[in-house]
Amino acid sequence: MEIEVSHHALRLLSLDGGGVKGLSAPMILEGIMMRVAKNPNSKGPCRPSDYFEVAAGTSTGGFIFIIVFRLRMTTGAAIEMYKQIAEQVFQPKAGRFDEADLKKAIEFVIERYGLNEEDKKIKGQAVLARNRVARMFLFTTAQNRAETALFRSYPHEVTYTSSKLNRILKDHSSEATNGLTVKWNGLVFWDGGLLNNNPINQLWSARYDLVGTDEPEPKVSCVLSLGCGHLKAGTPSKSRFSLSATVPSRPKGKDFSRHVSNLNRRPHYANTKYFRFNVDLGTQEIGLADYNKME
After folding, report:
1. What is the DSSP code (8-state) at residue 70?
2. Whose CA is closest to 177, among 53, 89, 246?
3. Count of structural domains, the chain
4. Is residue 257 part of a domain?
5. What average pLDDT score do residues 183-205 get?
6. Residues 6 or more apart whose Cβ sits within 8 Å of residue 58
7. Which end of the chain has a smaller Cβ tally under 10 Å, C or N?
8. 10 falls in which pLDDT band (50, 70, 90)?
């Protein structure tokens, strides 16, 4: 496969891990894409896979990005799909979350929403990396080496191009299955959120993947980072997530915010914008089994 080189200022998207409450992030993204769709130049459904040059996700964020970018679904469709499988996947049995239920959900999603007939036929055996798919990468923790491993949907000198969607989705749901591990090619993978719950720094480094080796440093139009909710002292709010309930936040991303501020002093990055949005959950903690609170 050959990567398509971008020749305009890049738009980058990052999504934290967050278990069942991770649904708040695509809800924020849906609100943003609805605003993008109002642009007179927009045509047809406004998909994140058509708008952002590269995206990075961890844990639940990685699961959602496979649906939105690898399967090229709209955010609205991805949200509905996430709701449909949440009750099946997040409902504990005998104190644990069932890996078999997760496998069934993965097979169902790809069989119904696969990018083409081949995807739909082989379901979970479909590979992550394909020609003409949106560029994204996911994080996992390689237990054997105690380091982060990246699974990319686009070609790279260090990549797992033959990795299957069922294995990747299982790994990126391990946060929702109480420590589910995935074995592949002699390696053991854990939840990527153990080392990189907020993948913003790795996303920034990945901008060099999107230009040719003989081309100058790429310009970046904007970097959008979405959290999956944070707790604070105060009166508990309703559990319904909406764009109006979100506030710009800088939990782990405050260092990156300062980094962008410094970059803005350079002419090359003078117009680069950084946005961080995170839902305020009030004082209510949302556990993995609280999938019904997504409403």
Report:
1. I
2. 89
3. 1
4. no
5. 78
6. 15, 16, 17, 138, 139, 172, 192, 193, 196, 197, 198, 199
7. C
8. very high
